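The authors assume throughout that readers already know how a fold can be written as discrete tokens. The format is easy to grasp once an entry is in front of the reader. For illustration, here is how one protein appears when written out as sequence plus structure tokens:
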Amino acid sequence: MPEKFIKENPLITRAAGFDESTQHFFIKDKDHPYEQEKPFDWIRGYQVGGKSIMWARQTQRWSDYDFEGPLRDGFSVDWPIRYADIAPWYDYVETFAGISGKNEGLSQLPDGQFLPPMDMNVLEEHFKSEVKSKFDGRCVTIGRTANRLHTAVTISSKDTLGVWGFSTAWRTSRANSTVIGRWAREACAPSRVPA
């Protein structure tokens, strides 16, 4: 990354997920300046799919603990909804988008409608066993990620992207916007909205 670009864009260049291969997803700092009274990095993008593309498809449900934070901790305004209000929507999105993950029975990380989880690598398995042996009640689980779209994106008549190839192709292929647009239209169809 050229030093000039970094100096002109101090906010986006320190954002998680920003590098030379993803810079086209980020709005340059000078294009939409804003005043900071307190430290706050407002990272934005114009792409279909919004910032979810920059979050490595991680999709954890919020729990009652998250929704009750302002009330419990005495700051800000209480959320007007609770986990139970949106649990059916989480179910719907996880099923539609193909979220993989593992149900662990944790109140702070609610279970969902998941595709089978990715396998942990050797280091992750070792870390998980060390945490389990040294910290009673702690749980290390695999990330919950959106994976279904990889089956719909075809690069040529014979090659379909796999889970690992998808994120690279997502960044570089203009054809993906059509697939994502179709997916978004399907998701928003009135017949798909849960009761």
